[in-house]
Structures are given as C-alpha cells and as structure tokens.
Amino acid sequence: MDMGIAGRSALVCGASKGLGLGCAQALAAEGVQVTLVARTAPALEAAAEAIRRASGVRVTTVAADITTPDGRAAALAACPAPDILVTNAGGPPPGDFRDWNRDDWIKALDANMLTPIELIKATVDSMIAQRFGRIINITSSSVKAPIDILGLSNGARSGLTGFVAGLARKIAPHNVTLNNLLPGAFDTDRLNVTMTGAASKQNRTIEEVRAQRAAAIPAGRFGTPAEFGAFCAFLCSVQAAYMTGQNLLLDGGAYPGTY
Q: What integer is the mean pLDDT of 220-233?
C-alpha cells in the first residue's frame, strides 16, 4: 500500500530508541523526511545514521529535552512546520500518591500533558493552512485501564486525552487528524528496566519475570517497536484521513473490556 506521504516532513519525539524510534523508522521507510528529538546525543545520532542508511531520506537530529521550553524551541527551530507530529515523552515514576507533592504532579503534567499540547499549538495552524496534518500522541494503555501505582501517569495522560477529544473535532474539517496511540507491553528498554526491578524485588530471574508477564498477554508475547511504528505510519497516511479523535489500544488483547 502506498501511504501517500512520501516527501512529507515529520517531527518525532523520544526518537532515539523504543516506540519513538519505531515510528521514525516506519515514517522514513515511507519517504518521510524526519526530525528526531531525544535527550541523549550519541544514541540519537546512531539512530539517525541507521535510518539514513536504510531509507535514504533526510534525517535531522535535535539533542534536547522536549519537556522543557528550551527543548521545544530547539526542536521547532529545526522543524517549524511539520506535516506530521509524533509526541512522546517518558512516563513519570511509579509510587504511592501519598508520597507525591505538588512538584511531582507539575512535572508529570509538564511532560505528559502540557508538552504535547504546546507542540500541537505550535504546529497545528500550519497544518490547517496547507490542509494536511497528522498528529499522533504516544500515551499509554493506562488511559483505558488505570494502573494503581502509576497515578501520576494516569492523571496527566487522561488530561491530554480529554484535550484531544475536543480539539480533534475542530480541526477535522481541514484534513488534520489527531489521535492517541495507547501502547501496552512493548519490548523496549523501559519495559526491561521495570522487569529487572521486579525480578530483584521478587528474588527471581529476569527471564522468569518476562515469561510470566508475556504469558498474561492473550497474544502470548510483547509487542515490537517495528509493529508499533507501522501502525503509526498508517495513521499518518492519506488512507487514514477519516480516523480522528481516537484512542487506539495496541496491547495484544491485554485490556479485558468490551469497549
């Protein structure tokens, strides 16, 4: 299938590894010129060079923290009017809400709610003007099924979800779509860190913890960044123009609900 987005430009956040990198790779494979943003320069440059070799597209890198005003300014200076925006930032730490103070909440809101909103605010008008735009927010399956120890993430990402629901309908007449991708358990560094911590606390091997976690997923495995990226690329395609304002769950069937 020709996605119809060759020659377009994309700003992809958190793109040096994991799900952000999967999205950048899939978009580049479709001929999209990509600007990659991540905090760690060496990993970012390695990812960019691999994409250049694989796809031949122009790849720009910005080593910055997208959750800060300076980081967003640097990213937007490198790619001020993207056709495609993929927002993505690491989730806040787990814990008990009794231990969190106002600063913890503000940091979570800044990273997982306000940063995507600021990026959308900075780019959506140019998308409207040219009558093409695709905005994808990478959020979390916890939006559908909250995880008790991830209260900071549950709250911040739910706030973003509510905002998107309203804005998506306002920009739809201009061929600008806005959707959220909700990943479940994907085989990324973040998942490995989480399971390594669990293995240590439970005095078990990481292999045992991985096997138990994977067995609890109906698909019987973890997702891969490549398949997540492929779904993201489809949402950015001309074929997906009629889908907007949606929360799309990719979790191998782990969510037990009907709706």
A: 97
